[in-house]
């Protein structure tokens, strides 16, 4: 088991995101804006570097490649691990982007894929999440944390089994209170995540060719846009596929320069 390779994927978004960082983000992509003396993206990358048997780190977004070229080159040399920027031809959603670049991500035949959002700052207990995931089984394990009921509505709220830690219910930014346990935007998956995303694509194709009243019939996003939260986490909750690891340390989403 110790020889199994893992890879990490960090979602960096694109110029249409990070509007709350203007005017700073006019000239510098949000992930490269300094945070505690280093580019924002540096913190999750440094955390990933500590994972044993890490083969590669991928940054996925739709910024122009030239905007990340210098940083990717320097951080690869500094950490002595391949860091690659993969540019989407258009936004595919967090799950869709993972699937779009699946052949690249699976090049090293990893056993697990970490997925992180670049605007998350926390202690990144990545090895602990992986260890817990191996105990649980299932497709994936997500980092969660308890917050105040007032703050919870800004995030994905979830219900987990207190004993088994299985994800039982997931709702993204619900209008009514569901739980004070929220999604931290840090995950580890087995390669079965690609089958799960492919399953969503197949269901959406069936819906578009044979219109019915499934959950995909009333989507307000393009057919090739697959969201991790609404399209993967919510449907798989309660099916012994997804589990949770509670973060007892600090966690913050970097939404504004302040």
TrEMBL record:
Domain of life according to the entry: Eukaryota
Span of domain Nucleotidyl transferase: 8-208
Pfam families per the UniProt record, alphabetical: NTP_transferase
Full protein name: Nucleotidyl transferase domain-containing protein
């Amino acid at each position: 088991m110790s020889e199994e390779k893992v890879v990490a994927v960090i979602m960096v978004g694109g110029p249409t995101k990070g509007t709350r960082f203007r005017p700073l983000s006019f000239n510098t992509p949000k992930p490269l804006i300094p945070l505690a003396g280093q580019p924002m993206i540096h913190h999750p990358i440094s955390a990933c570097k500590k994972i044993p048997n890490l083969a590669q780190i991928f940054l996925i977004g739709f910024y122009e490649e030239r905007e990340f070229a210098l940083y990717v080159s320097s951080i690869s040399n500094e950490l002595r691990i391949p860091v690659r920027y993969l540019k989407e031809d258009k936004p595919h959603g967090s799950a869709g982007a993972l699937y779009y670049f699946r052949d690249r991500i699976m090049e090293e035949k990893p056993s697990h894929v970490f997925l992180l959002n670049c605007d998350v700052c926390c202690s990144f207990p990545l090895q602990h999440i992986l260890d817990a995931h191996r105990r649980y089984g299932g497709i994936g394990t997500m980092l969660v944390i308890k917050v105040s009921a007032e703050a919870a509505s800004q995030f994905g709220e979830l219900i987990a089994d207190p004993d088994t830690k299985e994800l039982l219910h997931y709702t993204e930014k619900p209008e009514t209170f569901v739980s004070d346990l929220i999604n931290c935007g840090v995950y580890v998956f087995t390669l079965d995540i690609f089958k799960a995303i492919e399953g969503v694509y197949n269901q959406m194709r069936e819906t578009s060719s044979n219109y019915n009243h499934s959950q995909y019939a009333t989507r307000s996003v393009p057919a090739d846009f697959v969201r991790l939260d609404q399209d993967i986490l919510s449907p798989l909750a309660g099916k012994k596929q997804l589990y949770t690891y509670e973060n007892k340390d600090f966690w913050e989403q970097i939404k504004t320069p302040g």
